[in-house]
Amino acid sequence: MGKTLVAYFSASGSTARVAREIAEALDADLYEIAPAERYTAADLDWTDKGSRSSKEMADGACRPALAGELPGMEAYDTVFVGFPIWWYVEPRAVDTFVEGADLAGKTVIPFATSGGSGIARAGRRLASLVPDATWMPGRLLNGSGAAAWAREARA
What we know:
By secondary structure, the protein is of the alpha/beta class. The chain is built from five helices and six strands, in the order βαβαβαβαββα. It comes from Enorma phocaeensis.
């Protein structure tokens, strides 16, 4: 089995906690999908249609710039991609990552955190962005069990 990468975007820290748990359980590399411009509390105010996150999510073509370089994908066979659910799908920064990283031929397994929305719509949307990867069913991971699920999902 080749190496595993856990790539994640986290605005509040919830998804980062889950990503670290998965990476530790799998002895995987960890990569933060960090926007070039970090989100402020005002940016994340989903009740404000003028907030940065609201504007980004209203524009399906929006691809926020990321900080730093994308990881070299040559060494990885499996990539877990984690994110919070925003407006029923993944944040646009995650789209920037999946379209920019070379995921062709990789097994990609999404996971998410959410206050109430499921991951199915995000999984379908991500798979449509990079159809030449093998997309596995994702999982919403709000509580315990991330490590056990990740070991099973990668098997």
